[in-house]
Amino acid sequence: MTGGSTGRAVVTGGAGFLGSHLCEALLARGYEVVCVDNLSTSDGTNVSHLLGKEGFSLVRADITERLTIDGPVDVVAHLASPASPADYFRLPLQTLDAGSRGTEACLRLAAEQGARYLLASTSEVYGDPIVHPQPETYWGNVNPIGPRSVYDESKRFAEALSMAWARERGVDVVIVRIFNTYGPRLRAGDGRVVSNFIVQALTGRPLTIYGDGRQTRSLCYQSDLISGLVAALDARGVTGPVNLGNPTELTVLELASQVLEATGSSSEVVQLEALQDDPARRQPDITRAGELLGWAPEVTLTDGLLRTISWFAKRLDLK
Ligand code: UDP
Fold first, then answer.
1. What are the pLDDT digits (tens) for 287-318?
2. Boundaries of domain holding 63
3. How many separate domains does the chain show?
4. Is the Cβ atom of 89 under 6 angstroms away from ligand 1?
């Protein structure tokens, strides 16, 4: 499909950080968008500007209980789940429900409607990876009973379930594995590293490093990630899994320095206890996304951080 496509898209988790940006991108491409969210880790603010806009509707519902959408559906994008470690540590059962029952409800809807179905999976399926960078062919290193397992195993199960519905029921599935993404609409209190560091730097509080700060992440700006999701939806017949992320890798300590520099903050940096099973390093191999989707990220970390900082500064009413 190209720019002027029309169709009806259901976006679960559509009021969340990435979900709300995806709703906007699909509306801009001419889709009618049904945003489904239980508002458990968001409050509706991310989509409040879309309410009343033609083609957009918000359904407050918990997809782990039921997902009933009247009328035709061409696309189901399943993003609903707590996604920040702080959130899934706090909501372990909800997280497992979103990956299991929630995923099944989305697949059932896609099967009934003959819709293209996208599963927002995660780099967490690789756990604390032994292979570096991580290609999609790597099966991962996950502790099945640790505190992160509620998210990691939930998404791994969601991938297995999606593949089974693709194989047995012919659903047009695509699985994308999303690596760390940041940008406007991250919740100030959601506990992720970029939002924590920016809010701490802007408010003059110490930047909290978990462990020695030598663990790495590779950070993708939201608009790049969203164009990857749209490309994956467009590439009908492509099943994946496909990694989406920015391969520029840095340590958490380096990120803290960059945030301090970009904000001009004189906050100090403090070291706290390391999180259990925190992946030591993470970097996507995005060869497959290039080959199958013609996709690659474009926004540099410096630019993305500046955009994110200015959004938080306005929101925190600092500038
Ligand atoms: N982290 C940190 N300080 C914080 C928040 C996170 O040092 O205030 C670290 C965390 O331990 C991890 C990395 O930053 O190594 C990324 O954490 P995040 O919660 O953003 O996402 P994850 O990649 O773990 O899902």
1. 999 999 999 999 999 999 999 999 999 988 65
2. 8-182+220-245+281-297
3. 1
4. no
